[in-house]
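B., you asked whether I could sanity-check this one before it goes into the benchmark set. Here's the sequence:
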Amino acid sequence: MSTTKSLTRRVLGSTSAKLGAAGGALALGVTAAFVATAGASTASPAASTFSFRLVPSPGIAACLPHAGGRVTITTGRLNDTMKVSLHGMPRGSNFDLFVIQVPNKPFGVSWYQSDIHAGDRGRGSATVRGIFDAETFSVSPGGTTTFAPTHQFHLGVWFNNPNLPFRLGCEPGATTPIVTPFNGEQHAGIQVVNTGQFPDNAGPLSHVHR
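And here's what the prediction gave me:
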């Protein structure tokens, strides 16, 4: 006998014995409501996950041959949870995670998500919540700039310190560190990993559905 049926009989029997016929009718109503509530809770759709790799950005493999990462997005009823992990990074280094329109230059519309710290083993991770699926987009109807609804289906990670990739030889031919706007101070280094294994117009987030 299921737990729900057993509990139903106990509720009916106990209430009917105490209240008589009228109580039995009331018990039936209460029990029906209980069963309906239990059914609704078990009918909630299960969360789904989608995982993919982060690959070295152009030129990075020459200076950081083991650089890479992995992302797992778990969908939810109202939003999504995205866990990003990095490996093969310089020990004790810091990075900045962005959701971006295209994986490589010029990157397009970009949205700052989180900092990631790589510890003594060159590994680090961050978990963020938001809309990280086929509905991810930005729009600016007016103000300081204007653009139509624009999907962002890719991810990119940047060196927080522009001096680090320069010292590592990740910028061959450069005489000074390359500075990009991809951190909170808009004074970051170059990109280290991205989702460039996916087409520009079909980044991994476009494959996630709630």
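One thing to flag: The chain has two domains: 1-44, 49-207. Otherwise nothing jumped out at me.
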